[in-house]
Amino acid sequence: MARPEVLDRIKQAETEADEIIVAAESDADERLAEARTRAEEIRAEAEEEATSEADERLETARTEIEERREEILESGRADRDELEREARDRVDSAVDYAVERFEEAVNQQAEEAVDAQA
Fold first, then answer.
1. pLDDT level of residue 1 (50, 70, 90 thresholds)
2. How wide is the angle at C-alpha 70 spanned by C-alphas 50 and 68, nearest 5°?
């Protein structure tokens, strides 16, 4: 093969190599851009899922708290009602006790007044 032909073939091979390199670089850039886009999509999806799950957990916790609150309030109401019933049941005996003490005091004062006059 003659020297000019060899040089032409080398130039042609170099040109083809340069074209392959440019195509490979372009393909790599394109793949990298696609990978970045997909990574951003995955991150956004994960963030959305995490937010949704956090919202669900928060709502579940709020529901549980509200149920527990109602249980506590109902228990408090029942205790209050029982205390009121007990207090009402004791009113008569408390009044009787107070009247008895008052009568004793009045009788004692009356006796002291009678003794003082005698």
1. low
2. 45
